[in-house]
Amino acid sequence: MRRVNRDQKTRVSLTLNGRKLSAEAEPRMLLSDFLRHALGATGTHVGCEHGVCGCCTVLIDGVASRSCLTLAMQADGREVTTVESLAGPDGQLNALQRAFRNNHALQCGFCTPGILMSFTDFLKRNPSPSEAEVVEVLSGHICRCTGYSGIVAAVLEAAKSSEHIKTQAGGPT
Ligand code: FES
Ligand code: FES
Prior knowledge:
Structural class: alpha+beta
Strand order of the largest sheet: 2-1-5-3-4
Radius of gyration: 16 Å
Bound molecules: FE2/S2 (inorganic) cluster
């Protein structure tokens, strides 16, 4: 069996929010750390680092994924979309972000980037969800400030909005 040198760095190239970027990563480096420390995309938050809290959720090729359970090397050649893609170039919030603000769906906001990315993916696949479906998706996220009812209301409001949930990535969302 071929042995991998744990410290040998490899170049990882990906498309982040529509921009082609690359940086060096050790084989064991997590995608969450790669985004934050190698690419400076600190909007993605890290909580438990073992797949439970959902803070680190990003889209990989348009699908919501835990970046703490993904190696940076696994994202090589893929499209990664993070919370930084949601607002417009002038900082204008998208429909989902506005619904969060309207419904007081964030308190400290630590969990918010991951929740926004999960629901960006979810609303694309299910634009008219029931409350139970929203609650089921939200069960994959832990909010330490316990603001769940506001989050559910925000997602249902965004779903009713006529505006499609957009990202600035240009690629699949
Ligand atoms: S930091 Fe990834 S799920 Fe908690
Ligand atoms: S708003 Fe504070 S952890 Fe969710």
